[in-house]
Amino acid sequence: MRIALFATCLADALFPQAAIATVTLLERLGHEVVFPDNQTCCGQMHVNTGYLTEAVDLVRHHVEVFEAAGCDAAVAPSGSCVGSVRHQHAMVARRAGDERLAERAEAVAARTYELSEFLVDVLGVRDVGAYFPHLVTYHPTCHSLRMLRVGDKPLELLRHVRGLTLLELPAAESCCGFGGTFAVKNADTSTAMLADKMAAVIDTGAEVCSAGDSSCLMHIGGGLSRIRAGVRTVHLAEILAATDDAAVQPR
Amino acid sequence: MTTFLGVPGSRGSSNLRGSEPFPDAARMALRDTQMRRNVGHATKAIRTKRLTAVAECADWEQLRAAGGALKSEVMARLPELLEELERNVIARGGTVHWARDADEANRIITDLVRATGSDEVVKVKSMATQEIGLNEHLESVGIAATETDLAELIVQLGHDKPSHILVPAIHRNRAEIREIFLREMPEAGELTDEPRVLAMAARAHLRRKFLSAKVAISGANFGVAETGTLAVVESEGNGRMCLTLPQTLITVMGIEKIVPRFTDLEVFMQLLPRSSTAERMNPYTSMWTGVHDGDGPRDFHLVLLDNGRTSVLADGVGRAALHCIRCSACLNVCPVYERTGGHAYGSVYPGPIGAILSPQLTGTHGHDDPNASLPYASSLCGACFDACPVRIDIPSILVHLRAKQVDTERGGVPGGQDLAMKAAAWAMASPRRFAVAEKALSTGRLVANRDHRITALPWPGSKWTSSRDVPEPPAETFRQWWRRTHG
């Protein structure tokens, strides 16, 4: 299959390992990955902060880039960016009165997938041949869980990773407090939510906290780093890309 | 003749707006660690019970869809349904009053109570009367109102404010309730903090009020247009006492609480108890239609309250907030509400539903209006939408209200957020500019510590680094890696 990587702006600029791991994994599974290098940002931050007018150009750009890529599917290592493409792009276009763009956005959204749902639903794989000999707990990010309904697909994938011990995260479905600009606009409340999430993560005794979104991991990881906790955050894609001869480097 | 100038703040003395923006109120609320433990403990218990109660219904999703569809029908036909309700209430011996806002409702109710010659009333738990600040108003004109719902009584005796739609004293634990009772009900004598002992004390206190009161005031969970029937759903039986014993009954109902047909109650009577108290069926459902000789109140008044609802109706997206049946399931699952409690929202409607309802009911004037901050009091985690029994898409309405807020402020002097968002949109709309921005970001490596962490950034980054580190930007971005390895 010819797959366009939707790297997401955050992974591209700050967490390249997640995007590199997605490429490595999909190539290892025998697929051709292309990176439309004029992609920028899906506009989720603008939409969620209320700047829907400013988001129109970003939506149009995203649609044009992934239409031109001419691939069977677009895959992103992010539940929330895919959630934005699938649940917000057409709305943003319609609100601006651009029905044609809305329809094109819907067509692009229909073949855009978050990594775990692409692996399980489209490729039909659960064992991706990964090896990761660590104690891992998994935080199901809100948009993967409630916007995309990926359910336990990420856990299914992790359960098939050799050497990995999966530890159940208490109150897993509770938000970590990131919420984009919420983390700065309501920094105190966000931190209170983060404190409880970190307590749950630490309580599992895991070495690694994983998730399918670099943004939520940046939040949880930023908190764990601040209190010098002995847990590191690793994106799901990095764990799935890890093999006997290519282990994940801790940050 | 007076002219309505359309100033949002002129809607009377309603309890729909706090005195400070949510982030500031939340900061103070978060310091009340006892409240956080009380609310956290209670919401977790209700949350878990609700999941069990909902799982028992194989057709739960169909019920939600039916509830949402019925509410959409109500919004589309509101004027004719209200007139139908009015006709049927009058035909069965009741009187109907229309109140445009809180002041008008309070005036109507005061006149009705005064006409009975009584200076005390008993009250059934009601959000509409909390919304219009009825108790405070009655007190100011010398009429004593007694709340008879146990939690509302705790709030009233504690000179406190409700912090939850269903469990207004959720922020109190039983030790605190015992203290309030000892102070405010000296006749109760010795008290322990056992729930049964506290409930018995309240029961004895209230029984005297039930038997002496000539006037009762209630809200309504539903009003049926085709029959003129009003319904109150409750757990304690205090409502039944108020609705049947006094000679005069005054019911205050928000105009959105109407349902077209009696059979529509079938849907809501399944959705409401399971979503609110996690019960299959609530212990007491009282329904009354007009007045009847020798049975119940001899005089029945229905006050239909607008208080901003028609402005909410005018917004095609935002109007779904009027579908709310006040179950409070969204409060119990909300990670923000769980930490801050209800008082931080400043309105009698807290939590996710309050964040979309309060600012729409009051309207917001300017950036500094406390209610303008409410649509941002959410991480958009989506738990509220999943829990809502009538499928109100609260996250989408929050985003819609944020957009309205941003659009309203266009044309003025742009703030820091405006500039940042516009600059980011400009940079991200072009691949070339985006690449330049990425390069600029890599200068962040210069401020990283030797251990590759960034622990302090200038404002507004300081809002992040006050409690979280930032990783050092990578030596190579993804697109640089791609060019090097796949280019």
Helix-strand blueprint:
The complex is a heterodimer of chains A (251) and B (487).
Chain A: E1 2-5, H1 9-13, H2 16-28, E2 32-34, H3 44-49, H4 52-68, E3 73-76, H5 79-87, H6 89-95, H7 99-110, E4 112-114, H8 115-122, E5 135-138, H9 142-147, H10 153-159, E6 165-167, H11 182-185, H12 187-203, E7 208-211, H13 214-226, E8 232-235, H14 236-241
Parallel strand pairs in A: 1-2, 1-3, 3-4, 5-6, 5-7, 7-8
Helix pairs in contact in A: 4-6, 4-7, 5-7, 6-7, 12-13
Chain B: H1 22-29, H2 33-55, H3 60-76, H4 78-91, E1 95-99, H5 102-116, E2 120-123, H6 127-131, H7 134-140, E3 144-147, H8 150-157, H9 174-184, H10 195-212, E4 215-218, E5 222-224, E6 229-234, H11 238-244, E7 248-254, E8 258-259, H12 265-276, E9 284-289, E10 299-305, H13 309-313, H14 329-333, H15 335-340, H16 351-362, H17 383-387, H18 394-408, H19 416-428, H20 431-441, E11 453-454, H21 462-465, E12 470-471, H22 478-486
Parallel strand pairs in B: 1-10, 2-3, 2-4, 4-7, 5-8, 7-10
Antiparallel strand pairs in B: 5-6, 6-9, 11-12
Helix pairs in contact in B: 3-12, 9-10, 16-18
